[in-house]
Structure formats: structure tokens, C-alpha cells
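Students often ask why inverse folding is considered easier than folding. One informal answer: many sequences map to the same fold, so there is more than one right answer. In these notes we will look at a single instance of the problem. The structure comes first.
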């Protein structure tokens, strides 16, 4: 499924602070060879204005790291051949998720960067793409649910899941300990998260304040959380004026079924693509990350709003106070 969109400028809104060009979203199928060639002429290594993302809504084999890696490498090649600049895989896709103990998962854990990310870097160099992928990380005597970000130039960075539900392997892992970071790349300013992080508005807001234009969440949603793609994903996008992409897995592990319904929305919270429930598919979207840098929004005849500059953080101090009960944090 390929869903594309363009941006058309349709009116000028005079602001008390500075003029604002408002744009209307027009969704349509973009199939002409001229349009495709124009996208492919954009080279990574230069700033890419229109970024094509491939979301890999796929299954994973628990304890099958080598098999999972081999399949992901093939899908990177497939996405690149279809003009993708960025390939995004689900949470823990290299390892599987439904583990009953920490020790059971030891065989599929590795350092980040490490052997798997090095292999993925080779494919990113070969096919000139960026990749975000989920795996289980070991770092000395600590263990994390991690998203690795690599590209044609090598390893870019990693994100360790900050918010851990009491579910499967997350029950036994350490909470993420790395500061939130936005990666300024040739394909936009990108922030990362994993699954349950979406439930915490502070996560997306912090990434936005750090300059994110695109927030990418890799997930393993169970079938009971259909409200997340329905409501949380577009809300996080709209309240921060960022593109928001959540790539979920499908399949079943040890009796637990995964939802699918991967979703990409624009900076107004409008859906660009949504995956089908329970089915494997590759989802493509084309976005213009720089448009998310414009945080002032307005409408003809109405005042403008700016959800960042209109904040009152001096009244939100309770949000950053230490937990009175931190027993769930490892």
C-alpha cells in the first residue's frame, strides 16, 4: 500500500508576529514516473526535502535472531528498490518479545552497536538508506529494550525504552537511562521512542522541544490497545505539530497476538497511512519534515496558536518532581 500526499499553499494569514503561509493537505495516489524519478534523484548526503519512509509491519520469530536479521536485511533491500530513504522495523523485531524470564532472552541479546547493527549498516551503505530497528541490548550487567538508528554513514545512535509496562520481556529489563535526543540527519530531525512511551505526553513534548520534526515509535502492541493508533498517535502529532510514525508488528507469540495497525500521521494529526490489523505489509509514506518546524497554526478569520510558545511551564513543575514511589523503576 502506497499512500502519498502533497502540500499546497492556499492562503496567507497575516500574523501579529509575522506572516504565516497556511497549507492544505491533499491526499492522493502519486504514481507518475516523473514524480517517482524526481524523488529518486534526491541523494542521501544532501538534505532531502521529500522523505519516503517504509514501515515494516511484520512478524518475528522468538529466539530466532539470525532468521529475523536475514529477513530484515532482505526487506531493507526491497524498500530501497522502491525508493525509500528510511526503513523502520517494529519493537524487538530481531529477538521476539514474549519471554518468560531474563535468562531465556540472553541468547538473543547483544551490544549496541554490535554484530547485528554492523550488518545492517553494511546494507544501509550498499542501498543508501537509513534504518531504525528494535532489539534487546546487553550492556555489562544491564539489559534494555532498544531502538538502533543506523544509516549510510554508519551507526547514528540508540534509544533505550524509558517506560516499561509489566509485560513479557519488559518485566525483567532495566529502564532506559539515556537522555532523550533528536538526531539531525539528511532526512530530517528525528526523535525515537518505543511502544508504551506513546502513553506519556512528556516524552513526545520533550523531543519536540529538542527540535524533532518526526517522532518514530517502534511497537509491539497487543490486540487490546487499539485505542493507541486510534487516539494516542494522532494526538501526540497534533499537540506537538510533528509527524508521528508508529510501526507495529503482527503475528503471535506464546498465545499473545499483536495488533498491527501501524500508523503515520502528519503534523496536524491527519492520517497518511494506517496498516491493516493482524496482517503483514510494507507501508510507504512521503513526508516533508521541514513543514513540521513551523509551529504557528492559524485559520482564516481566527487567531493563531503556537502550542510551544503559548505554554506556561512555570505552572507545570509537578511534572518533573521525583516519584514518591519509585519501586517500579529498575
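Output (designed amino acids):
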Amino acid at each position: 500500500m502506497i499512500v502519498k500526499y502533497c502540500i499546497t499553499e492556499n492562503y496567507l494569514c497575516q500574523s501579529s508576529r509575522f506572516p504565516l503561509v497556511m497549507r492544505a493537505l491533499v491526499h492522493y495516489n502519486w504514481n507518475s514516473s516523473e514524480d517517482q524519478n524526481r524523488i529518486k534523484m534526491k541523494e542521501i548526503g544532501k538534505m532531502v526535502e521529500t522523505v519516503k519512509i517504509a514501515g515494516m509491519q511484520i512478524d518475528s520469530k522468538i529466539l530466532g535472531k539470525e532468521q529475523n536479521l536475514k529477513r530484515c536485511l532482505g526487506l531493507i533491500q526491497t524498500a530501497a528498490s522502491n525508493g525509500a530513504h528510511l526503513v523502520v522495523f517494529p519493537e524487538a523485531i530481531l529477538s521476539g518479545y514474549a519471554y518468560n524470564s531474563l535468562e531465556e532472552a540472553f541468547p538473543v541479546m547483544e551490544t549496541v552497536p554490535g554484530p547485528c547493527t554492523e550488518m545492517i549498516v553494511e546494507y544501509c551503505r550498499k542501498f543508501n538508506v537509513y534504518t531504525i530497528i528494535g532489539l534487546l541490548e546487553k550492556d555489562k550487567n544491564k539489559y534494555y529494550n532498544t531502538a538502533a538508528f543506523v544509516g549510510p554513514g554508519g551507526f547514528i545512535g540508540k534509544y533505550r525504552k524509558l517506560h516499561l509496562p509489566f509485560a513479557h520481556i519488559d518485566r525483567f529489563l532495566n529502564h532506559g537511562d539515556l537522555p532523550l535526543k533528536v538526531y539531525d540527519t539528511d532526512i530530517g530531525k528525528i526523535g525515537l521512542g518505543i511502544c508504551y512511551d506513546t502513553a506519556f505526553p512528556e516524552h513526545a513534548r520533550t523531543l519536540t522541544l529538542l527540535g524533532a520534526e518526526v517522532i518514530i515509535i517502534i511497537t509491539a502492541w497487543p490486540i487490546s490497545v487499539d485505542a493507541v493508533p486510534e487516539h494516542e498517535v494522532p494526538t501526540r502529532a497534533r499537540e506537538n505539530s510533528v509527524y508521528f510514525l508508529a510501526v507495529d508488528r503482527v503475528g503471535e507469540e506464546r498465545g499473545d497476538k499483536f495488533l498491527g495497525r501501524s500508523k503515520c500521521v502528519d503534523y496536524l494529526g491527519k492520517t497518511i497511512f494506517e496498516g491493516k490489523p493482524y496482517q503483514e505489509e510494507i507501508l510507504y509514506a512521503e513526508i516533508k519534515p521541514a513543514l513540521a518546524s513551523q509551529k504557528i497554526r492559524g485559520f482564516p478569520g481566527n487567531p493563531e496558536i503556537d502550542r510551544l510558545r503559548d505554554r506556561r511551564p512555570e505552572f507545570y513543575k509537578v511534572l518533573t518532581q521525583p516519584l514518591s514511589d519509585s519501586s517500579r523503576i529498575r
